[in-house]
Amino acid sequence: MTTEAITPAEADAVAEAKPRYKLAMYWASACGGCDVAVLNLGMKLIEFTERWEPVFWPAAMDAKRADVRAMDDGEIDVCLFDGGIRTDEDAEMARLLRAKSKVLVAFGSCAGEGCIPGLANQRSIEAVFAAAYDPELNDVNGGTPNGPWGSPYGELELPTLEVRLRTLGQVVDIDYLVPGCPPETERIAEVLGAVTAALDGTGPLPPKGAVLGAGTSTVCDECTRERGVKTIKEFKRIQTLAEVDPNLCLLEQGLPCCGPAARDGCGAKCPAAGAPCIGCYGATQGVKDFGARLLSAYASVVDASEPEDIERILAGLPDTVGQFYRFSLAASLLHGGRS
Amino acid sequence: MTAPVTTPETAAPAAAGQPFEPVILGFTCNWCSYRAADLAGTARTKYPYNVRLIRLMCSGRMEPEFILEGFARGADAVIMTGCWPEDCHYRIQSVKALRRFLFLRRTLSDLGIEPARLQRFYASAAEGQRFADEMARIVAEVKALGPIPPETRVALAEPPAAPPAAAEPVEVEA
């Protein structure tokens, strides 16, 4: 990736000719991988800063919530919001950035459909704390940090956990969605380029609610493996296989691949590398519930007609929720069973 | 004059002291189980009124999404019915429906929804009595289970509260 050398004078002329848009990026309950995926743009990111001025981006620059509060409503042109809404602070930031941004993008799987943190929706807050702060394992500070907390370092007011993780769209109105865990860097560049063109008025503005940086088909469509008639007699774990056929469809080999339900756009990198798709781009176009669609696809290719035989094959999937809803539990029709 | 239809969404929660009347969705196939229900009707066979029947062309048309949406909208139980496997008008679709049913029942159970809330039985076009008996059995089972936990009825939940004015007083931060 090279950029043509331009003199400062030329750069000024370009900046004068074209407006510089204000960009914010925030992480709520997320791992930070989405921020890293944006930083992975490398030189491209430097080019983007000619047209984009980051005004709030905790992962990359020093700006505080008070700075955002001091902005006018709608002052930020585009906010990329990654992470789910798990704490009262996440919800507050979502509302604040919604008010301050013209365009709010649910960026990445957590903001879009809950992702891995959403799997905790199967359990109560007490169970989550019991698992994370098991006193026998790691209770070094005493108590669980939730709300007011008398820490050894003084009185702290920490965010409190909400009853379940919600997606950004379940809390505030969102304009666009960029799927992926994290979104592929080249797709991020495409999205930023398209959004710049739309704001300049030189490109089409995607309709509200559109999914950007991804396709409308499934990962199977992008996958180059050979597909035949699928008849699954047993679900296998990849660790137990001596060898994975490099050319044959992974589902046909008995590996629970999420390709049939997952949205394309990633380039089917996992199956190309011999690992089953885990469905991080979320449900494909027109699907309300990722898990329902995937289990329907699996049920269609299971080679058994007697209940006992079907149950035996099904037992090869010991964690059905983890298999069918790894990334989408919080956005599923049952929201992981907690309101 | 028609009585107002109680859908899962309009069903009022049982008042204290009132017996629990479950709201149950029943999916039938066009060729067998719907005909069985029809036969039960023309024969004046009585069975509990808790079931709302929805006719599909085939039980193989049953998408798991329909069932999940039914639960999300407040159904206390969902019943899948269809042709006996050897009678299915679309060859093996009844078997595919059986597989989807077993897969979905396991997944629902892992999500905390009792397996008895998802039921399945076969009824041929001649089995009106069987249809009525099975419905009575299932309604009794669901009554014993009680209403579905309110947290499952997310589609009925109020949307998140409107955001308070964004321009909160600026707090001092380090």
Please outline what is shown here.
The complex is a heterodimer of chains A (339) and B (174). Chain A contains 15 helices and nine strands.
Would you write up a description of this structure?
- The complex is a heterodimer of chains A (339) and B (174).
- With 339 residues, chain A is of the alpha/beta class.
- Chain A has 15 helices and nine strands.
- A five-stranded parallel beta sheet of chain A has the order 2-1-3-5-9, sandwiched between helices.
- Chain B has 174 residues and is α/β, with parallel strands linked by helices.
- Chain B has helices at 33-42, 64-72, 93-110, 128-145, and strands spanning 24-29, 51-56, 77-82, 118-122.
- In chain B, helix 3 links the parallel strand 3 and strand 4 (118-122).
- Chain B starts with 23 loop residues before the first strand and ends in a 29-residue tail after the last helix.
- Classes of the chains: A alpha/beta (339), B alpha/beta (174).
- The A-B interface holds A 64-66, 69-70, 73, 95-96, 98-100, 122, 166, 170-172, 287-289, 291-293, 295-296, 298-300, 302, 304-305, 307, 310-311, 314, 319-321, 324, 332-339 and B 63-65, 67-69, 71-72, 85, 92, 95-96, 98-100, 102-104, 106-107, 110-113, 150-155, 157, 160, 163-164, 166-168, 170-173.
List keywords for this structure.
heterodimer; A: 339 residues; alpha/beta; Rossmann fold; five-stranded parallel sheet; two-stranded antiparallel ribbon; 15 helices; B: alpha/beta; 4 helices; 4 strands; 32% helix
List the helices and strands and how they pair.
The complex is a heterodimer of chains A (339) and B (174).
Chain A: H1 8-17, E1 21-27, H2 33-39, H3 43-48, E2 52-56, H4 65-69, E3 76-82, E4 85-87, H5 88-100, E5 101-107, H6 109-113, H7 125-132, H8 135-138, E6 148-151, E7 154-157, E8 161-166, H9 168-171, E9 176-178, H10 185-200, H11 219-222, H12 269-272, H13 290-301, H14 307-314, H15 320-324
Parallel strand pairs in A: 1-2, 1-3, 3-5, 5-9
Antiparallel strand pairs in A: 4-8, 6-7
Chain B: E1 24-29, H1 33-42, E2 51-56, H2 64-72, E3 77-82, H3 93-110, E4 118-122, H4 128-145
Parallel strand pairs in B: 1-2, 1-3, 3-4
